[in-house]
Amino acid sequence: TPLSSSSSPRDTVAASRRLPVGVRKPPLRVVVTGGAGFVGSHLVDELLARGDSVIVVDNFFTGRKENVARHLADPRFELIRHDVVEPILLEVDQIYHLACPASPVHYKFNPIKTIKTNVMGTLNMLGLAKRVGARFLLTSTSEVYGDPLEHPQKESYWGHVNPIGVRSCYDEGKRTAETLTMDYHRGAGVEVRIARIFNTYGPRMCLDDGRVVSNFVAQTLRKQPMTVYGDGKQTRSFQYVSDLVDGLITLMESEHIGPFNLGNPGEFTMLELAQVVKETIDPSARVEFKPNTADDPHMRKPDISKAKSLLHWEPKISLKQGLPRMVSDFQKRIMDEKR
Ligand code: NAD
Ligand code: UDP
Ligand code: UDP
């Protein structure tokens, strides 16, 4: 097995547990911070299905118990209500660190809490990884590229980020989290992985979390107009959640540190997205224009050649295939709301 690029004494301890790529010794003890959230809960489903033991650490800021309720009776599953800004002692083999609000509406709600979560929360999880020799994976974001001057974005691009704007608690927070991750790797020999996630959608997103796909789908199902911010010509690339979960697990199990872009290169303007939602749900759906928010990136599209060549990973589900799977989940939850 090729070892990762660092070779500290700690690595040799970890190396004794390490198996050839693709071969693993289940069950692993895995922590998923933010595991009651949208992405985290899908990741938990997959890890439990593979035979791992999973501890979810979540403060339920944007996550919901219902997202993991089906596992509560499983002896391999544990749910801890805890805020990652505070230290925690656990004995585990792997840490998937997702805890952080991801929707702009949520992370701007309490920016100080957001940056504390990104900095102190990540520091605590890295401290934990160091103490127990666990492998640590950070879910960073395409927002580290800011309003990009390079298109599509490669991992080598350093970004174009406003350090004092209303989004900075999130994008600068994640940039600092990446820095901490690399410093714990270089300075303390922690085995780390960094994923830069691009816009992801799917079942279990909060109905009113303010992100564009969830907004458009919920609005159309409720017979309200889709709210297009600005002229609707800004672009995003939308990834279905199961592709992301595959990518996260593949990265964790690989011998590569990253960072890796994990996203679907299919690029859409917001007006094009509205058109796909209209075709999928309701041909009579309408759009309504609203003023855009500050510092909104004009375009975003991942270059995923690095993940393709080193992880042999690429997304499989197009927007047109993924959207209907999300719609049925939203339909059910919107019906439940009305009861
Ligand atoms: P989400 O809001 O659904 O999930 C985040 C989870 O973290 C929630 O369960 C929330 O309660 C929990 N959390 C927040 N602050 C916490 C704290 N201080 N202590 C403990 N738990 C806390 O968001 P998501 O879409 O599932 O995103 C998961 C991760 O992926 C985030 O780190 C996010 O930055 C990253 N990401 C997501 C996307 C996307 O499009 N979904 C894109 C880029 C990056
Ligand atoms: N930490 C934690 N759980 C652990 C080990 C550490 O929450 O099992 C926290 C610890 O409280 C500290 C942070 O992680 O706030 C960084 O730990 P580290 O040991 O790297 O730094 P130090 O404690 O020496 O400042
Ligand atoms: N957006 C929109 N209508 C909405 C919500 C968002 O037009 O109801 C736009 C927003 O201005 C941005 C894009 O959709 O250009 C993606 O926004 P989102 O909040 O989903 O994620 P971001 O990529 O900004 O983190």
From TrEMBL:
Cellular compartment(s): Golgi apparatus, Golgi stack membrane
Pathway note: Nucleotide-sugar biosynthesis; UDP-alpha-D-xylose biosynthesis; UDP-alpha-D-xylose from UDP-alpha-D-glucuronate: step 1/1
Enzyme class, first EC level, given as a word: lyase
Cofactor(s) the record lists: NAD(+)
Pfam families linked: GDP_Man_Dehyd
E.C. numbers: 4.1.1.35
GO molecular function, one term: NAD+ binding
Coiled coil ranges: none
Entry membrane topology: Single-pass type II membrane protein
Domain NAD(P)-binding, chain residue ranges per copy: 32-326
UniProtKB keywords: Decarboxylase, Golgi apparatus, Lyase, Membrane, NAD, Transmembrane, Transmembrane helix
Major localization listed first in the record, in broad terms: Golgi
Transmembrane helix listed as a keyword: yes
Gene Ontology, cellular component aspect: Golgi cisterna membrane
GO biological process, one term: D-xylose metabolic process
Functional summary from the UniProt entry: Catalyzes the NAD-dependent decarboxylation of UDP-glucuronic acid to UDP-xylose. Necessary for the biosynthesis of the core tetrasaccharide in glycosaminoglycan biosynthesis.
Entry's family note: Belongs to the NAD(P)-dependent epimerase/dehydratase family. UDP-glucuronic acid decarboxylase subfamily.
Name the record gives this protein: UDP-glucuronate decarboxylase
Species this protein is from: Oryza sativa subsp. japonica
